Amino acid sequence: MKFKRTKSLYDIHKEYDEGYSEGHTGNLKKVLTVKDLTFMGIAAVIGAGIFSTIGKAAFDGGPGVIFLFIITAVTCGFSALCYAEFASRVPVSGSAYTYSYVTFGEIVAWIIGWALILEYAIGNIVVAISWSAYFNHLLQGLGIHLPDWLTVGYQTAKMKYDAAVAGGGSVADLVYTSAPQVLGMRFIVNLPAFLIVVFVTVLAYVGISESKKSANFMVWLKLAVLAFVVVLGMYVILRDDLAHNWSPFLPNGFQGVLRGVSSVFFAYIGFDAISTTAEECANPKRDMPRGMIYSLIICTVIYVIVALVITGMVNYKEFDGVADPLAYVFNKLSMQKIGMIISISAVVAATSVLLVFQIGQPRIWMMMSRDGLMPKKFSSLNKKYKTPGFATIMTGILVGIPVLFIDDLLMTDLTSIGTLFAFVLVCAGVLVLPRISKEKNKFRLPYINGRFIVPLIAFAFIFFYRARIMSLASHIASDNFQEILFLLFVVVLMVVAVLSFLRRYSLIPILGTLFCLYLMTEIPVKSWIAFFLWMGIGLILYYSFGRHHSVIGKRQKGTTK
User: Fold this and answer.
1) Single pTM value for the model
2) In sequence order, what are the residues at sequence separation of 6 or more whose Cβ sits closer than 8 angstroms to the Cβ of residue 489?
3) pLDDT per residue over 336-368, tens digit each?
4) C-alpha distance from residue 261 to each of 176, 246, 542 (Å)
5) Crossing angle of helices 525-541/106-117, nearest 10°?
6) Fold classified for 30-147+192-431
């Protein structure tokens, strides 16, 4: 196709080895080891998920929620293996954006780079608001009470006020009612969320070395707290003979376990963020794959053990509406001091997630700028700290301003859909990644012939959902958008099964693609609408700026070397 401008692996390796010279200030510092990458992965993943969403998932699935963590880990594992091969063979910053540029071309690379903003920048809005909630809870435990109108976003307060008015309830005690007025408008801002974004942005600006030290410290601290929680929790279960809380293990059946898919998947978001730091690795071809896989395995083990402990200490039914399940179980058993320690750990965990994502987003913009798809200013490196300074500041603004007033629930699904979209393209991209005969010591996905396995999986899926599929096929005009998405997935599944049989596709990237596509069908319709609008804005920017300033486009026209 005319718009398909593809970067070659040869050019990428040449740029990586020789440095970037077209108006840029060189490569980033190569200081990260496999230990640093593993810790950054843990820092990104172990955050709000284990301290908040694990409670909702446990309420739906009971102790058997551990199976959901394992299933989700396997799904993410397929994507992680694909990311690992890309990171090993394309050792530069940019993550899925750069990988898509190599395999699918410029327009798809732009789309995925634009979508990654939803994962990193928009996702950090959710994390910052969550951090603020834990921090305020911690301050209250210390006897410090900030005004309510400084601890919540304007949109959240207004939504609660409108709901109360519509329902005929009292509004006297609501934040929106008691907030002061400035120029005729209620002054309501989430100040702690804004301040933590400013702090993390400064930390990301001053250098990767300082950032990795901070991330490593925060990881050690929260791992120590989680280990303490597990040991003490198991002691309490054995001491008080609470093992009966594990029975029944699947109180709502496997269907109940699957209800928590969205929240549990959100808990795993972030392991791919370390691929954005490939250019800062001392040995990315070896260490990047190991760091991604190690961090995913460690996080899964932690999730499973913690889920078992909290569902053993307290009956799963008590987690309905509990926002801080780890602190809740100890407060429930009159161990308030332990609950305070956990709240501190939750604040640290959320901070580490913010840091890793604030490091990742600027590096994607930096790569897009190097390719000419964004203004050159985004690829300029700070002379002192050797970080993408301007891009880091812009990321801080993009996250910091919205957290003052926006509602986090509106952002969560957008983050998930952007992440899944990136996973789909990375997994599919491995299938068409060109080979270089001289490549040595690269991580390679183990080849498992999917010729017969993929069609069998497709047949089993269709057989299991045959009643739903037949109903949809006969009433497609009257079905909602969510069901139409499911039917589209079935069509894609059948096409992929046929292609796998004819072309003998590798099983792992195929499974990664299909698993992520299926999860995307579970995302609410309103989030899909917002996603399409976001993509539309991105395409307008590409065709109005990026396409005309593309480095590869200019080379093809003979206007650059």
Assistant:
1) 0.78
2) 517, 518, 521
3) 778 778 778 878 878 878 887 888 888 888 888
4) 34, 21, 34
5) 130
6) Amino acid/polyamine transporter I (1.20.1740)
